[in-house]
Design a protein that fits this description.
Elements (H helix, E strand, L loop, with lengths): L1 H14 L17 E7 L6 E7 H23 L9
Antiparallel strand pairs: 1-2
Helix pairs in contact: 1-2
């Protein structure tokens, strides 16, 4: 499950057009850059990825929304109850 979350997070991060959040002020703390080592999908190599704290928060929010929608979609469908 951990790897699924990370994969979805990276997928959502890659889908962002510009990587910025429009119409929001960036505080000094939000603009702080955080770098970390991330494993490349399908490889044992790692690469350094740097993002601002605001980008990390937005990517996390987007990934959670994606998971919520996926769960919602999995519960929509034909009823499993027997009809008389």
């Amino acid at each position: 499950m951990k790897y699924l979350y990370i994969t979805l997070l990276l997928l959502v991060a890659g889908c962002g057009a510009s990587g910025r959040i429009p119409d929001q002020e960036v505080s000094k703390a939000d603009g702080e850059v955080v770098c970390r080592q991330e494993r490349i999908t399908g490889s044992h190599r790692q690469e350094t990825v740097c993002r601002t704290k605001m980008q990390i928060r937005q990517e996390t929010k987007d990934a959670k929304e994606l998971m919520r929608r996926a769960q919602e979609m999995s519960t929509i469908g034909p009823s499993t109850t027997n009809k008389p």
